[in-house]
Amino acid sequence: PDVMLWALKPAEEGISSGTIARLWNLTETAQGFSLLFNGTISDARKTTHIETNTGTASFTSTSLFDDLPSQRMQTYRLAGTPSFQQNQTTVRVALKVFLEGPYDSVSQTMSKTLNTSGYLGSHFVGTSVPSNATDSINIEIRNAASATSATTRKFLPAWLLADGTIRSFTDTTKAYVEFDTLGGNYFVVVRHRNHLPVMTAAAQSLSGFTPPVYDFTTSQSQAYGVAPMVQMGSRFALGAGDVTQNGVVNAADRQTVKNNSGAGGYAIGDVNLNAVVNAADRLMVKNNTGLVSHVP
Questions:
Q1: Angle at 10 between CA 6 and CA 11, to 5 degrees
Q2: Helix (H) or strand (E) holding 230
Q3: CA distance 107 to 104
Q4: How do residues 92-123 score in pLDDT, each as one tens digit?
Q5: How far apart are CA 270 and CA 193, in angstroms?
Q6: pLDDT digits (tens, 9 = 90+) for 137-157
Q7: Residue 119 C-alpha from the chain's centroid
């Protein structure tokens, strides 16, 4: 069966010697997991099936997490006072990110012109658009830094608000997106239709509980790679101009924007998102020529 199983029990020597957690990965691929607990975990060890400690395990004060190979069982001993909450079959992502094109470094917010002019509503027919939305973005989670090495990759759209935070595309009351996959450690990638993508600098421990906001805007070191974002005053943003979405701002992007000149509304060449493609967009792409994506 294509499932992950778990079980909890007191240690054979008694609960004073810890709580034993056993995980079985019955799937045909390696899987990550995260078990969340009430109480506090003070230590976690991998053990044999007869509960002999063999090494340290990955944990936080409230979670145990690991990656299990296909068709593998692993036993863990937890010290402290953990009590079980629930198995995580969904993971949530909350983040903050700015786009260079519509960003204003004085107000430290992005423009909402596409929204206030009605173009988001007319483009995304039948969806509820938050009043503070700047545009939509796409969010990916993957269980390895490189796309070719990842065995789990999930994608969801989200609304990007003017202050850089997000809302669920299907439920705008939620300040996060929720992926249908097991809890574990994942890199988070953010993409926009005419900006360069970014990815978290390291894998994040994700679960089905409301997450802290991962803030890309505070430092270059928040994103994967060497100087992967554009500095805007004291903040950092996704670089504008990759309208062809090939991971580099180059002559093809400049030509696409030139060909798109004069277009209004929800246009691919409108990199500053002011609802018209003009000289300002061409200049922004020209200035960013040579910038590349650092997302592997």
A1: 105
A2: strand 230-232
A3: 6
A4: 999 999 999 999 999 999 999 999 999 999 99
A5: 10
A6: 999 999 999 999 999 999 999
A7: 26
- Residue 133 corresponds to which amino acid? A
pLDDT single digits (tens) 207-223: 877 788 999 999 999 99
Q: How many CA atoms lie within 13 A of 295 on its CB side?
A: 25
Contact between residue 202 and residue 148 where contact means Cβ atoms under 8 Å apart? no
Angle 40-45-49 (CA atoms, 0-180°, nearest 5)?
A: 120
Tokens of residue 117, six digits: 């002019």
Q: Taking the CA atoms of the chain, what radius of gyration do you get in angstroms?
A: 22
Helix (H, G, I), strand (E, B) or coil at 250: coil
* 16 DSSP assignment: G
**94-128 burial code (b ≥16 CB/10 A, e <16):** bbbbbbbbbbeeeebbbbbbbbebebbeeebeeee
Question: pTM of the entire structure?
Answer: 0.73
